[in-house]
Amino acid sequence: MNIHYDARLDGELPSRDKAEVLNRLQQDVPGLTLLHREEDLHPFECDGLAAYRVMPMLVALPETLDQVVALLEGCRELGVPVVTRGAGTGLSGGALPLEQGVLLVMSRFSRILEVDPDARIARVQPGVRNLAISEAAAPFGLYYAPDPSSQIACSIGGNVAENAGGVHCLKYGLTVHNVLRVEIITLAGERMTLGSEALDAPGFDLLALFNGSEGMLGVVTEITVKLLPKPETTKVLMASFDDVGKAGRAVGDIIAAGIIPGGLEMMDNLAIRAAEDFIHAGYPVEAEAILLCELDGVEADVDDDCERVRGVLEAAGATGIQQARDEAERARFWAGRKNAFPAVGRMSPDYYCMDGTIPRRELPRVLEGIRELSEAYGLKVANVFHAGDGNMHPLILFDANREGELEQAEALGGKILELCVEAGGSITGEHGVGREKINQMCAQFGSRELTTFHAVKAAFDPDGLLNPGKNIPTLARCAEFGAMHVHGGELPHPELPRF
Amino acid sequence: MATTTSPQDRDIREALGERIRQANAEGTPLRIVGGDTKAFYGRKVQGRRGEQAEALSTREHQGITGYDPVELIVSVRAGTPLTTLEAALAENGQMLPFEPPHFGADATVGGMVASGLSGPRRPWAGAVRDFVLGARVITHGGDEQRFGGEVIKNVAGYDLSRLMVGAQGSLGLLTEVTLKVLPRPSASHGLRLEMTLDEARRRLAEWGRRPLPLSAATWQDGALHLRLEGGPGSVAATRERLGGEDLDAGYWEALREQRLPLFAGEDDRPLWRLSLPQRARLEVDGLDESAMLHDWAGAQRFLRSDLSAATLRAACTAAGGHATCLTPGAAEPFTPLPEALAKYHRRLKAELDPKGIFNPGRLYAEH
Fold first, then answer.
1. Where among A341, A364, A395 does a domain terminate?
2. Do A252 and A196 share a domain, yes or no?
3. What span, in angstroms and rounded, lies between the C-alpha atoms of A298 and A278?
4. Which of A407, A471, B11, B148 stands 20 to 30 A from A278 (CA)?
């Protein structure tokens, strides 16, 4: 089912005359950069979900908070939807523009306002790149923990909007665990502080609610993050397996031994071959699966844990175990994993990255299910997996120039996500719902939960003008989605009228 | 998923849902009660026309519905005694890393989540909300809804499970929660080091920038109390390096349960909890910082004081924090919210509880 904004399913959007909106905003918001010519708008047509492109009506690039306030007030009075965008690296289309909407680009808010090494915090503007925070903290021996693969380019504002993760989530958490405070502006132009530099704040935990809310409740204008001391030492073990199931069980055995690795990653044969061909990381290309297990902390503990993990891996039937001998080898082991997506990209004209989570014990069954789906759709799937926390990234290989293959890849992706939900998991571990997974939300949640989500949205944005159509599907969309997915004669949303 | 069953296990969500549906139809305010151990924390729930609000007990809704130690995830019904959950985790060498206070033998898991209170390990491990992965909530319509999930990473939909933490039951009735758990550290050791408050502050700031195996730090009465936790190697090495005397292991539980002399003594001035940036200094006439108990490496401070709520709160707000009165009967135990924030609290409450049946007045008079 198509994910393009469909007024019939997603709700009518107000349609304003572009010249009138431009005129009004130019008058109301002094000094605001407003792009309106087609050639200027082109670069903003899509985010990281590049298969979907929509030309926004206008692009606004504010530089001051007063401009953001005035812009939001103006849009609210005009009834024009606002889609907020950071660096535009999001993979789920959370910043996909609307034809009738203003795209609010926060990239000019790119200053690191403060790094306080004694308080171990950094106060930054939303357009600051994720990696730039760790770079600014490095001279003090500190870093910002969440490290999405796009960390060189993605902005912290976007990280908050999507509650971004990374390879170290099991031990260090997602964005929500590492943000102490955000400053926001509501659609009505009010400024609010959520959270605190103290460890809690009075009232409801709106900070948690805003993390991952995809710009639908307010606009984040400043973020205070927690910094952590760099671990004293970091070691990596790489284990090969002749069977994916054995590798999956080894992951559980490590955790059952009471060890929480800093990173615990798994790749299947297709992903191993792709990465090795691209990076020459020294991966065993004959292996059916490899595990990368990173242990970090105080030296004495890390050494002990390395020995214990080695024992666990041997007992789990690893066919080979290598410990990175030095920092260069450790970086090389990780380079293969961190470049797995572009590596797979070299094997195929296009690839589509999925982001489902499952309870780890379901891994063998879900991998088997993916293999069957891959055969049924005639498209190859490489599997890269944040094994420690159950977050899978199946990469579907396809060629968009072949008639209908993008649609096939999307259909296969949708089936994989539904498989994750059936296994007790989720349709998104860290990339967000955005527009990409709007239909699969109907598989994850029932209409009652969706109604509650809409109520939360209404509390902050009664006009429904902040990023409409993202994250939470309408009941009408789910009714249509349900009509196409009848399971065993039972509709998932039987109480709804069908279109 | 493995489940632990006990003779107390019962699923009464149908009955709870029915009562809520009825209360919503009548507009009857409900006072949600688990073990009733944290009644002191917050305002009195407002009944109709000054009457006592009707109690709705979750106590019978008990049982661990799913626990797989290898997944590091446990799902548990709200009425389950906290001691039952902690015992089940301990059997598998695991724990609730945020060390929730009980404040009585009857404390329940639902109350733990609703109050959102965390113990001494909080600055290093995280708070209750950091370990909540999913929640089942009976909303005003009487239906049980499921938010979040039973996996460690999940960003689908708004994070309503974490929103429930600390909301004190004012947005809906929590019936079940799914929590992330962690292995217990293999070594733990308490130390007492005599030093001034200024010296403790200086050293804590310095240690905070290094990967030390710290899991609790409290200054009171001229001494810094530390808990070292981690692998045996790092704990032994750090203990040697820092020196000091050994601390009785019971100290941390007495602190967490508020049984130390500051809490339990004869001083009958109101008891306050100040939540502040770790290194914040309070400059208020009549306030002696060295008479306070500085927990969470300074981020949570307890004191007894006759100063007015307004004076204390102004000082805390200026320092970037807030102040909560823990002595029952305070007119406003929690720091009042700025106007814009209060407005969105009212709107959220009105959307999720339009008839005002869930613990009205518990957090603030107006919601």
1. A341
2. no
3. 34
4. A407
CB A144 within 8 A of CB A179: no
ipTM: 0.97
Cβ neighbors of B69 (< 8 A, separation 6 or more) are: A256, B92, B93, B94, B181
The verdict on A329 and A411 lying in the same domain is no
Residues A329 and A245 in one domain: yes
Residue with tokens 């106007």: B339
CB proximity under 8 Å: A 343-382 to B:
357-361
A176 shares a domain with A153: yes
Within a domain: A150: yes
The DSSP-derived string for A88-136 is S--SS-TT---TTSEEEE-TT---EEEEETTTTEEEE-TTSBHHHHHHH
CB contact under 8 A, A120 and B209: yes
Nearest to B129 among A174, A205, A429 (CB): A205
Shortest distance between the Cα of B283 and any Cα of chain A, in A, equals: 17
pLDDT band at B131 (very low <50, low <70, confident <90, very high): very high
Of A306, A321, A341, which residue sits at a domain end?
A341
Write the residue in B147, B280, B351 that is nearest to A449 by C-beta.
B147
Domain count, chain A: 3
CATH of residue A304's domain is 3.30.70.2190
In degrees, to the nearest 5, what angle opens at C-alpha B361 toward C-alphas B130 and B336?
70
Stated as kind and residue range, the H or E segment containing A179 is strand A179-185
Whether B121 and B47 share a structural domain: yes
CATH of the domain at A144: 3.30.465.10
Closest residue, chain B, to A213 (C-alpha): B158
User: Residues B129, B72: one domain?
Assistant: yes
Total count of residues recorded for chain B: 367
Contact A196 B186 (CB under 8 A): no
A316 close to A240: Cβ distance less than 8 angstroms = no
- A-chain CB neighbours of B129 within 8 Å are 205, 208
Q: Judge whether B230 is closer than 8 Å to chain A, CB to CB.
A: yes
Does A114 reach chain B within 8 Å, measured CB to CB? Answer: no
Chain B closest-CA separation from residue A186 CA (Å): 10
Nearest to B348 among A119, A204, A208 (CB): A204
Q: Chain A closest CA to B334's CA: distance in Å? A: 7
Contact present, B362 and B170 (Cβ < 8 Å): yes
Same domain, B176 and B31: yes
Please report whether residue B343 resides in a domain: no
Q: To which residue do tokens 């935990």 refer?
A: A205
Which residue of A298, A430, A495 to mutate against B (max B Cβ within 10 Å)? A298
Interface of B with A in 308-337 (CB under 8 A): 320-322, 324, 334-337
Which of these three, B225, B258, B291, is where a domain ends?
B258
pLDDT tens column, A266-310: 999 999 999 999 999 999 999 999 999 999 999 989 999 999 999
**Final residue in a domain of this structure, among B214, B238, B258:** B258
| Residues B163, B18 share a domain | yes
Q: Is residue B3 part of a domain?
A: no
In a domain, B155, yes or no: yes
Helix, strand, or coil (residue B353) = coil
Residue A437 in tokens: 């997974």
Interchain CB distance below 8 Å, A458 and B351: yes
Residue of A nearest to B136 (CA): A449
pTM of the entire predicted model: 0.95
State which residues form the domain around A214. 112-229
Mean pLDDT in consecutive groups of 10 residues from the start of chain A, 499 residues: 91 94 97 97 95 96 98 97 97 96 98 97 98 98 94 96 93 97 97 98 98 98 97 96 93 93 96 95 96 94 96 98 95 91 90 92 90 96 92 94 93 94 93 95 95 98 97 95 57 46
